[in-house]
Amino acid sequence: MLELMSESAPVFIAVVFAFALLIGSFLNVIIHRLPIMMEREWRDQMAELQKAPPEKKLIEGRFDLIMPRSCCPSCGKLITALQNIPVISYLFLKGRCANCKASISARYPLVELFTASLAAITAWHFGAGIEALAAIALAVTLIVIAMIDANTQLIPDSIVLPLMWVGLSMSLFHPLSGAGTLFISPSDAIIGALAGYLTLWSVFWLFKLITGKDGIGYGDFKLLAALGAWLGWQQLPIVIMMSAIVGMAINVTLIVFQGKDRSAPIPFGPYIAAAGWITMLWGETIRNTYIDLMF
After folding, report:
1. Domain end among 128, 147, 173
2. pLDDT > 60? residue 202
3. Can you give the residue range of the structural domain that contains 233?
4. Cβ atoms of 223 and 272 closer than 8 Å
5. Where would I find the H helices in 171-217?
6. Is 191 helix (H, G, I), strand (E, B) or coil?
7. Would the pTM of this model clear 0.85, i.e. be above it?
8. Beta bridge partners of 71
9. Both 113 and 251 in a single domain?
């Protein structure tokens, strides 16, 4: 099977797509549960610091990414394995709980399809090999970060910090892999992580000195540092430029056509994540095109 995937690009992409559907199903669990786990941990820490009895927990008993088993939020009925098949079960049940017929959010199959699509495009771009698997892992992680930040305006350290360390660690294999998009040199990775963090950190403090307000969250610093560790410092200008342009365009559109409050906080993580994925695949092409047009 491994030999067939390495020799046939369509087979490799199809296998990646199918497997990524399952990953997307688990991403839904992470996106929903991790912010709740973080909130519970903060409440316990606050109670410990105040030497007071901990507040009543949001959910009794064990609550993590594994337990309790998934259930309908309306009636509490456990979801069986057949009812948890990515996309197919949603279509078969017509978007409703099999027990109480309550509507199920379309977000779940959309995340599954989005994850599979990004993974398949990434596999097609890199071809069968270790670099493709690393790139898919980065793409999947960026989806989780973007969704959680969009929902809660939080970027969990438990995801973004390991992502940065993995990027730095991968640079140790650069002499064995040769030049490429990933497995960059250790110096490029280290400088990329430093430059990524310090760039937004500097913007944060400059904005705060001028306006007295916080403009960017610390999670954004860490996310750009992680992308710098994976892609190298040379790609950071592209990531920053694209995330700023896309973020500005989307928010202006929301303000003009949907009456979005201009003073409402804007999660910047999804735009950085999207720009990071695009840069991973086509960063060199974008940079060379820009240079040709300008010079």
Report:
1. 128
2. yes
3. 130-295
4. yes
5. 174-177, 186-211
6. helix
7. yes
8. 78
9. no
